[in-house]
Write a structure and sequence with these properties.
Two copies of one chain form a homodimer. With 348 residues, chain A is α/β, with parallel strands linked by helices. Chain A is 28% helix and 27% strand. The mean pLDDT of chain A is 96. At the A-B interface, helix 6, strand 13 and helix 10 of A face helix 6, strand 13 and helix 10 of B.
């Protein structure tokens, strides 16, 4: 049986991380990489990864997706280029029209109907027309603050209130994340960034709340979210970030889903560098009031970068096996690590 | 749209618990109950449950399954009669041959191919022949020590070792469970019960280990399990159990799945009355070594009875929607609570 063939579109931290993971797995190969970063164009993927090519065919990083992604060139395209459905849409459409399955890292693509129902319907139509499927996933949205919540409600007779909290460290991340999350800036600069929409914060609460509510049959009649600075009282330093005492060490995102006039879903997601320096213990927490109640903690938190890389790669067989159309994590079997030969998981 | 129609076969703690849960849900109705317990035969299901019938049609408990379960009588049969696949098989076969979908509480049915591959293949064949599907599920096996483990590996690049531990209290359970688990007997009686096979202990490690290993692509070359008494140092009393100091308060089950010559899956499941009296904190724990690692705790544990009831009822839409055949929790979308109208979840 032939290897599962993968094209990676976008070779930043996520795309290159997926490549490293794939190169350690059996029954799968990377047949093409598309990336527009000048520093990478024309180079060997193996050189960029700092990995030995061994006896594998060469893969040269190409900025032209039309040359990388052609009909029949691969089974799945991992698209790690965007955070927002609207921005990702033209690329996802192009990949689907080459009749390849697609997995997107775009946070909003984890549940695109939450904010872009028309684009979601259009992606579903295009995927079906071309006989392939498309999924958005990652660690969050994708697992820790939504799918895992849904899975745990599976053992509940009745659900009254859901709180999902993810307390994580930004210390492993690079300069781009430091800037997006406002690490090191003053509170005034932070407030200006929030009002002008230049600070990203966490993207995905709307999607996670929509996914949970639709899964268990709650109708969300209002969604709100807030973005507040985490102000440090001491100097904090991480490999790529520094926040002086009195300045911003990260972002505290909170969100609420209202059902029947009350908050039934609470999302809490503080992200900062060096949380331990002020006594914050990182972790993923799910507290569900109902019958029977759930009180889950995973400490420390699943590292965001690795988690997203793993989720996207591990969902490859499920996406290839799925019926054509736009899929969410709610539609497919539970995610799982791939420790065997990926070919054995494909229903040909 | 018509209500989802359910027949319940076996009206003990599990069957009657499912009935109570179903009666609080929208878009679903119980159309028949089969049970052979003399005390319940001929009585109204509502009377036995101690619930008001309101304007619902009467349901009389009938010992004759041929009268309760006929072709077209229901969408799904919840079969809560057995723990073992071999014992359940004739009943499951009979239900499938009436062309109704089946959900079984039998622990071994959570992954029947682990111990009864021929019966599993036979059930798959019969289900397909009759255009329906069959699933075994529950809280454990079914979720806490297997499916949840699998789900958490979904965010992992690499898995090295899995430990699933469920520390639970037997105090909510009745006299039958006290007897099966050896609560109150002496250590000598316990050892005799183990050697003669009269103590049930926990049924399901073989199934959970098989489910986890198959899901992530490990080949289990050896499975072992042990059953040891939990000896109390003080008198312990629960509503239906009593263990004097020096006697047995419960059972500690341990199991191991060997992969490539080493133990890669460890299962630990101590069950006892009044664990708190000797400082044991109940909970569900999953520790997975690998990249990134998982260190999950759910405290206290999900109550076994309620959890099994909820899992079976909540999987009804997934089982009705599934392609024909024998299914496991690995094949279907993640379980989820049903807080809305069940009819909206059925893909007609």
């Amino acid at each position: 049986m032939e290897n599962v063939k993968v094209v990676i579109w976008g070779f930043g931290a996520m795309g290159s991380g997926m490549a490293k993971m794939l190169l350690k797995k059996k029954g799968v190969e990377i047949v093409g990489v598309c990336d527009r970063n000048e520093a990478r164009i024309g180079k060997s993927m193996y050189e960029v990864l700092g990995m030995d090519r061994e006896n594998r065919p060469e893969v040269i990083i190409n900025p032209n997706i039309d040359e990388v992604l052609t009909e029949g060139s691969c089974d799945v395209c991992l698209c790690a280029t965007d955070s927002f459905t609207k921005a990702a849409f033209p690329r996802l459409k192009q990949a689907l029209e080459k009749k390849v399955n697609v997995i997107s890292t775009a946070e909003e693509m984890a549940y695109p109907k939450a904010q872009n129902p028309e684009l979601a319907a259009e992606l579903d139509r295009i995927a079906k027309e071309n006989g392939v499927s498309i999924l958005g996933t990652g660690i969050n949205p994708g697992l820790m603050m939504d799918l895992l919540v849904v899975c745990l409600t599976g053992c509940m007779v009745d659900v009254e209130h859901i709180e999902a909290k993810r307390v994580n460290s930004l210390s492993p991340f690079g300069p781009a994340v430091m800037e997006e999350q406002g690490v090191g800036i003053t509170v005034e600069e932070f407030d200006k960034g929030v009002s002008e929409g230049t600070l990203a914060g966490h993207v995905g609460f709307h999607e996670s709340v929509g996914m949970i509510a639709d899964a268990i049959g709650w109708k969300v009649d209002k969604f709100e979210q807030q973005m507040k600075p985490i102000v440090t009282t001491i100097d904090r330093k991480s490999p790529y970030g520094f926040a002086a005492a009195g300045n911003v060490a990260g972002v505290n995102m909170t969100g609420q889903g209202w059902v029947d006039g009350e908050v039934k879903i609470d999302m809490i997601h503080p992200q900062q560098i060096e949380p331990e320096m002020e006594g914050t213990e990182t972790g993923d927490y799910i507290v569900i009031q109902g019958t029977p109640p759930i009180n889950m903690a995973n400490r420390p938190e699943v590292e965001g970068g690795l988690g997203t890389i793993a989720m996207c790669v591990n969902m490859i067989p499920h996406v290839i096996n799925a019926n054509p159309g736009l899929k969410t994590m709610l539609d497919l079997p539970v995610p799982r690590a791939i420790m065997g030969d990926m070919r054995e998981l494909i229903q040909r």
